[in-house]
Protein 1
Amino acid sequence: MSQERRYSFEFFPTKTEAGHEKLLATARQLAGYRPDFFSCTYGAGGSTRDRTLNTVLQLDGEVKVPTAPHLSCVGDSKAELRSLLNTYQDAGIKRIVALRGDLPSGMGMASGELRHASELVEFIRAETGAHFHIEVAAYPEMHPQARSFEDDLAHFAAKMKAGADSAITQYFFNADGYFHFVERVRKLGVEQPIVPGIMPITNYSKLARFSDACGAELPRWVRKQLEAYGDDLESIQAFGEQVVTDMCEKLLDGGAPGLHFYTLNQAEPSLAIWNNLGLPR
């Protein structure tokens, strides 16, 4: 793994002006911790294309933190992707998170000229050469739509060999699963850094629903303790903070090349973990 660790924060583009102002305020607060980069998500089927573009350019240009747009091949033609790549290249954006992307509701299979993230990585490389540092997604607990763990590992290795520079994982709460995944893909020839994605625990019901939907396991002992707290948000957040901090310590002690925080456009939950870990700023 890389000897130099990197730390980053992820945002999602908002629908309202008030939400956008909150996002910018959060980003400015997090910028004080000197992260390596921000990233900004891309809605299912490109549904937030313009908002993602505008948010990325504002974070990069005004907040002054290098910002990586998510780019999806679901629903986008090569011409549309080429236009976005040109816009980002012209704006000086240097990093992209390349994903197959979520399918919009009712869409049974990927649309667009590119069907897989590996094809998107190849397309970006063919269009822009080495301009972009390309991130891809990793699923330590297996992609929810994969046919098998072995098949998922092979697809991940194909993405990396297509030209990706590094990967960010789906969030998880079991460090051993991450280390097992890394060990397996190393045997498949993947040498690039695989950075753990970290989800702070702040709301049990939302986390449980999202975890069930995306295939991220919420361990039974954590689920049962969170259930026991009921509506006691203070206890949920304190317990969640300790669980995630302990996991991050294990990840970093075990050689993980950094951490990528899924902020949900909030600063404090991620910063609580950051400060508990004594990370640099």
Note: The mean pLDDT is 92.
Protein 2
Amino acid sequence: MAKYRRSLPLMKGGTFLSDGGMETTLIFHEGVELPHFASFVLLSTSEGRRRLLNYYTRYLDIAQHHGTGFVLDTATWRASADWGSKLGYDARALAELNQNAVYLLTELRAEYERPQAPIVLNGAIGPRGDGYRAGRMSPDEAEDYHAAQVAAFAVSDADMICAYTITNIDEAIGIARSAQSHGMPCAISFTVETDGRLPNGRSLKDAIEIVDAATGRFPQYYMINCAHPDHFEASLDTGSAWIHRIGGIRANASAKSHSELDESETLDAGDPADLGQRYRMLTDRLPRLRVLGGCCGTDHRHIAAICEACLSPTALSA
């Protein structure tokens, strides 16, 4: 039974960490082959599950040291029908893998959770298409496509779902509607280009306000992921109401564009200390920012630097 589905602790305040760039860490630091950037394939073997557990514990140790809560994401960003089909997984196998991904996290929560540092189990959903390109689906099509993965999480112990690296507004609406129909709290995380806009040119303001209007403000909060803070800082109008809907940041380590990252054969890990300071400035500008994590190129060093910048006694008294 889901522990926090009816009352998410991160909606009550406090800081919650999350992990970094799972896929880039596994590929570039650990030499793991992830076809189609799909980390869910590791759930199929005992060795793969061991790798995932080792990956998660690096971040949970950091959170435990700082006494923060944690949003623990499943390794299922690619575990939807189109991507699963490319890798030989049918609908039944995918449903089982999504549920097993949550089960893996329940073991970690039992070990690491403390009364004042709750751990929220989050079912991670990715876009139907490429995370760097604008997809084209109607809200109804998106709702239908993502329903199977949402349904799998709904019958698991997942407390919520979050759709990451979403590039268009209609897909976000469909995912939120699917979550609502299955009784799953959800968050939507958009990605932006170097100009702070979605790949189709729409602004973050438009994206958040349109999804809210179409879903009765169903998403618990919104996030920005897979972009460097330098790409979106200027678009954050601190005087606008929509800013209060942003509850999480999972930024890239690199300030390169998506197209540059796509073409790169090496990992750009950026500067962890600089990224931490940028997060510190974002916490000042985003009054409802709760979830601090990373995306492509980030690892436990970046999350540790973010904690030092945002959660150290010096930072808290600044």
Note: The chain has a mean pLDDT of 95.
Protein 3
Amino acid sequence: MEFVTEEIASQPECWRRSVALAETAGGVLPRKGERVAVFGCGTSWFMAQAYANLREAAGHGETDAFTATEIPAGRRYDRVVALTRSGTTSEVLAVLSQLRGQVPTVGITADPTTPVMDLSDETVVLDFADEKSVVQTRFATSALTLFRAHLGADLSGAIADAEQTVTEALPDGATQRRQFTYLGAGWTIGLANEAALKMREASLSWTESYPAMEYRHGPMSITDSSSVVWFLGAPPAGLRDEVAKIGALVVSVPDRDPMAELIRVQRLAVTIGAEKGLDPDRPRNLTRSVILSGAAGVDTK
């Protein structure tokens, strides 16, 4: 647990460095008015979802987010952004190889010695946010901080909130619950998806995630007194009280930056994993990068 705990705690400083990087690397990131696709796998896909929503909401242009294997063929974009911590994920490299010469591509990575550097037309390296743990925490949020700063957001409040959430007590009784649902809206749907993934990876917990209003259309039936329902961002009117009446532990801090609140979820996942005797640095059945043998169009040498 040594690596992931330290990496989670380092996020406020990493975010400061991402904000500074946005000022110098901004010319590499998508220009206002461009039609953009951003893609990745796992955690990176969920950060892509958050960025796509934020970019469109800021009026910077149509932005789609995809997992690497599901990018529609033939759809035209002005720029494509690949988000990959390791720079070696086979599906990501295959897409970049296929797009070479067809559309400008940008790789966002933590490791400047990996194949993504050669396959992307331009790159931004967040080496200060690289990680030893298989469970991804600070690279994901640092990349999203980079995107948010480039869109013009003031991240000073988010960083101040993060300074608090790296040490703040976890929700009382949360570690004793057995089922966890994370809810978001707009850009925080991606954060909710990522929160659920962290719980699965680090603690093998029964976890789900939904757009907050969609939760009412069926998924709410799973909730009972053994559940935690955690809102990332402000909950829709009336939903928090409705969930509380079912008996769930409801967690909602609407005045806090949702990306900073994600840090508490990361910490909860690691804590529960440790209590189960798991090693959150080395999740079951997972590796730091998914490298497929014989992936078409990919040279990882």
Note: The CA atoms of residues 141 and 259 lie 7 Å apart.
Protein 4
Amino acid sequence: MPKMRAVQVAQKGGLLESVERERPQPGFGEVRVKVQACGVCHSDCIAKDGLFPTVPYPIIPGHEVAGVIEAVGEGVVGWPIGTRVGVGWFGGHCGRCEPCRRGDMIACTNLRIPGINCDGGYAEAMVSPADALVRIPDDLSSEDAAPLLCAGVTTYNALRGSGARPGDLVAVLGIGGLGHLGVQFAAKMGFRTVAIARGADKESLARQLGAHIYLDSAAQDVAAELTRLGGAKAILATVPNAQAMSEVIPGLAVRGVLIVIGVGAEPIQVSALDLISGSRSVKGHASGTAIDSEDTLNFSVLSGVRPTIETMPLERAAEAYDRMMRAEARFRMVLTMGQ
């Protein structure tokens, strides 16, 4: 069997190690993707540190995959060899569980997640069900497409489902791997966009990304400032900081919503009075299905939204991962395969 280069985690808490693997063969309903680029996401720590009990070791991490179909299994229709495709967090649904039967495939109780419960994209090739494939527009490079298949679809999908309308005040809490995309999407969707971060030094970047207003959480009462501006119809919380999320809730407008996409360990504190007095709400938001990712890529091309990335070759995956975990990346690390 032909071989390929890959980076795997052999056991819970193990190192990211370069290995040679047999090139996987697609089964019924599957394709093999020749990987050109794979984003490095904070959620990759689930595989490295065994945060889910279902992680099968050894495992190849990576769920921000962009490449080209190089082999097609039986039963696949409409995905010919040579098609540019991506695979994100949504790696396929079972079609049998209640959420699937109700059409809510991203909530599938048997969701296939590349790099989490099956091999992902830290490799020269990976196998994916055809129903998880995302068409990549010709005007988008594989390196730029990769982070949009997780960070991009998560922020875009959350904002377009927020209930906010063009002209409404929408805030993005945090300007990092998620937030720098959230600000761009919010501005391009026509929202009056507020960027919230710590330090006056972030203001220039926030405005370059499209923010109309910048709030420095280290020097201002963010909730009071949002209230003074009329209240936020939606606040997209991209930081893994529960205290920061808790503090902005009073800044929501009547029937405003805090949408949580930043994952932290501490509980969010919320006053019942803050919720009831303005009929406000707090909700979490998952990523999105393959077609949601496709919408994200198409909107990004149409509007000019792009991730800010740093690239490293596959053999430096451990270095890229460590840089991401230390929050030193600006703003997404992307592995390239050198093909």
Note: The first strand starts at residue 3 and ends at 9.
